[in-house]
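Last lecture ended with a question: if I hand you only a sequence, what can you say about the shape of the protein? Today we answer it with a concrete record. The protein is Alpha/beta hydrolase fold-3 domain-containing protein. Below, first the input exactly as provided, then the predicted structure, then a couple of comments.
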Amino acid sequence: MNNMKSPSLPLLTRLKLLLLHLIEYISSRSDGTINRRLFNLFHLKTSAPAKKCINNVHVSTSDVVIDPSRNLWLRLFTPARATGPLPLIVYFHGGGFNKYGPDTVYFDDMCSHLAARLLAVVASVNYRIAPEHRYPSQYEDGFDALKFIDQRHNDFIYVNTDVRKCFIGGDSAGANIAHHVTVRAAEQADQFSQLRIAGMLALQPFFGGEERTDSELRLTKVPVLSVHATDAYWREFLPEGADRNHPAAHVFASGDEQFRNLDFPASLVVVGGNDPLQDWDRRYVEWLKGCGKRVVVAEYPYAVGFNKYALDSKVSSVAPEFKHPSQYDDGLDVLKFIDLYEGRSDWDRRYVENPNAFHASYALLELPEFALLLDDVTNFDREQVNSN
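The predicted structure:
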């Protein structure tokens, strides 16, 4: 049963979600695949080169071809008002592995804002999509893009950029790709002459398994994502005959001995309180911590964001008599929790009345979650840059 109240969304957001639903309905075939010709008629794209001004920071975009035979390319987002050396974010867009690209208007906007706010160069990768290209095509494209940047960045990045301070990031399916690419880069670190990974950004990452989690069973009437949709995405992406316990989806199913010994970077994991994937995301966090990896959690149970966002255990260590906010029953209890911390130097009081943190809400600029996301990513990146 869905016991999370439906989010009260701005009209603009509801119109965007309606358009998204209509496009997917019109272009989806009965077997779950996408009619590309119909989809592309409605797919909102942006062109490059282009320039934007975001909060008085000018951001320029340009496209760089890596391998035309597989349509592998990246879009660069470069802030102008920066003295460098700038960190680099290699970003993988979401879309269930089967749609969208760096030129999709939502991801172009998102990466532009990340570049402007963080004063970082963002390289958003266009990878092959399913079902035409199944696993491991997306991971191979991501790793090859990373090697291309390591070897050729001086040829196309024209500002002072420090590739030794590189972050691998993504949202949803893109966060899944970011994890697997980061693992492979850690396993094959000797293939990189200059690039070093300072951190990983996983925004509502897309993981799964054959088991149905509580959040998947409970959150059945929320925007954007459903269990029916996630099952279809996995069917189109995983190898023929594989189930959802495949290690691409269920990354922590096969044990942790090998991963424990990897030099895996600190990670920021964003969890949405109205996202059916939240239980998988929390398990991922616990797995990372159990393997001795540093993980930072930005969880918006009722669109509450935590600055300094250290580990979940920080709540109980500061005030052990109170529960973590994700365990609270309603918004009034969350307000009580926030009031406890108001005035503390290590917590931000950021409350939004409606639980809008559904899957992909971070990509909608008009929602408060977008501002919270920029805050959390900025703080995490700066902390990692300063510590390396």
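Comments.
1. The chain has a mean pLDDT of 84.
2. The first strand starts at residue 50 and ends at 54.
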